[in-house]
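Priority: medium. Attachment 1 of 2:
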């Protein structure tokens, strides 16, 4: 596996304030609230506040990175996408679509404390049995991996970095 070349580190004070780990992603202006004693972060794709967990911290930073740095349109991204595999309901963390609403990439997030390993890729590969996308992306906020599927050769290739949106949709 190869790690992408993202070299940012969050510079804001939000991580310490909410006991979140600094990430290898660019900082953004987080919208964090406390409701009934529970800390919540605004999800720009779901347009609502959701529970602030370490995994959600990674998701929100990664989504903002894709939109602001890689040109991904927020309108063609969806969080917590429901799928069914062998009569089992599953949820993809994020799915990226093209303008015809065909899924092109699946993203799986883990908390920074979780090591990305074979099990992580097995999980996203199961989701891909349903969606059959061209790219699988996994991030724990510190390390980011992307592989491009080659269905003709029945293989995949790890990429050096996370591709921009135009690369994702130009298949």
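Attachment 2 of 2:
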């Amino acid at each position: 596996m190869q790690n992408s070349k993202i070299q940012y580190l969050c510079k804001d004070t939000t991580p310490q304030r909410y006991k979140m780990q600094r990430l290898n992603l660019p900082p953004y202006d987080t919208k964090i609230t406390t409701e009934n004693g529970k800390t919540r972060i605004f999800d720009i794709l779901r347009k609502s506040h959701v529970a602030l967990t370490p995994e959600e911290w990674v998701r929100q930073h990664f989504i903002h990175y894709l939109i602001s740095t890689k040109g991904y349109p927020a309108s063609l991204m969806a969080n917590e996408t429901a799928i069914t595999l062998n009569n089992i309901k599953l949820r993809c963390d994020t799915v990226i679509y093209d303008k015809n609403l065909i899924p092109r990439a699946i993203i799986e997030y883990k908390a920074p404390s979780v090591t990305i390993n074979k099990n992580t890729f097995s999980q996203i590969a199961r989701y891909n049995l349903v969606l059959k996308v061209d790219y699988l992306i996994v991030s724990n906020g510190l390390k980011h991996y992307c592989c491009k599927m080659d269905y003709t050769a029945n293989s995949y290739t790890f990429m050096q970095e996370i591709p921009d949106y135009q690369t994702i949709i130009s298949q």
